[in-house]
Amino acid sequence: MNKFVKVSAIAAALVAVTACNDNKAEAPVEKPALELKTEEQKAAYSIGVSVASYINKSIEQQAELGLTTDKSLIVSGFTDGIDNKALLTEEQVKEALMAFDKKINEVRTEKAAKDAEKAKEGGVAYLAENAKKEGVTTTESGLQYEVLTAGEGDKPTAADNVTVHYKGTLTDGTPFDSSYDRGQPATFPLGGVIAGWTEGVQLMSPGAKFKFTIPSELAYGERATGSIPAHSTLVFEVELIEVEKAAQQSAPEASEESHSH
Predict the structure, then answer these.
(1) Domain assignment of residue 172, yes or no
(2) Which of 11, 79, 139, 140 has a CA-to-CA distance to 103 between 20 and 30 Å?
(3) Is 188 a catalytic residue?
């Protein structure tokens, strides 16, 4: 779930330099004349495409942080570097990249703090409004749930394994995870997930579908996780497919012991 994967400007530059050293061939002046017939030609061209893709992703991530980068200067620097005509010394290049990297980290830290504060304030307001809705129950811990479809059978305990389908969103509807999108339900020990899940799924019977609104303190709290800002209230729709009771999990071992006696 990492929306802003850290991309070092220095690392990007080193990748580009490495690619340049591996490929000294001059690019064709006119693109229509470009032909890729041999494996060597395809490999050389692919190096350039790979470097460009890496740098483009870096630029996109920087843009999400409010930083702009002049692509034409990147191209000029690449061309001058490959022709050994760079306008800056190696030391100046290193200093410039280190300064830019520092700026990126400072902006990222500032943005994360603002996102966390916004998520915290928004979560409190969302929980207050959601609690007023018909069909929504708030537990003592602050977990909110709504029964969308009732189920039948024994409810799981924290010691059991459960198989579920689910989708998770932020309070503004932004999705961050979904087993439906992966086309496969998830199976895990119920005691090994966030507290809101552990508590909430124990209220369900197989076949049930609930909507949970989980306060940040029952989710990831102060910790940002991928695209989920710190202090985020999370919304999940969960469908309980199967419960594997703890007794069933240990049954094979008990059976072997009985045979050994």
Answers:
(1) yes
(2) 79
(3) no
